[in-house]
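Subject: for your reference before the review

Hello V.,

The reviewers asked for a structural picture of the protein, and I figured it would be easier to keep everything in one thread rather than splitting it across files. Below is the amino acid sequence we used in the manuscript, unchanged from the supplementary table.
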Amino acid sequence: MQKRLYRATEGKLIAGVCAGVAEYFNIDPTVVRVVWAVTGCFAFAGIIAYIAAALIIPEKPKMIEE
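And here is what came back from the structure prediction:
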């Protein structure tokens, strides 16, 4: 089965983007959130990228959840 990137439905804080990225790469969601927050603070592009990812990445379907 091919690995797919989804927004998380559980463990999300805002839109589930960071939790979904962390699940995809099999790392701690806190690490992804910190990196994304630092990027957002120093470069407005981080905030734009998060909003774009929240709109583009599909939410994880219920039947795929573990």
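For the response letter, the relevant points are probably these. The chain is about 55% helix and 0% strand. The two ends are 15 Å apart (CA to CA).

Happy to draft the paragraph if you're swamped.

O.
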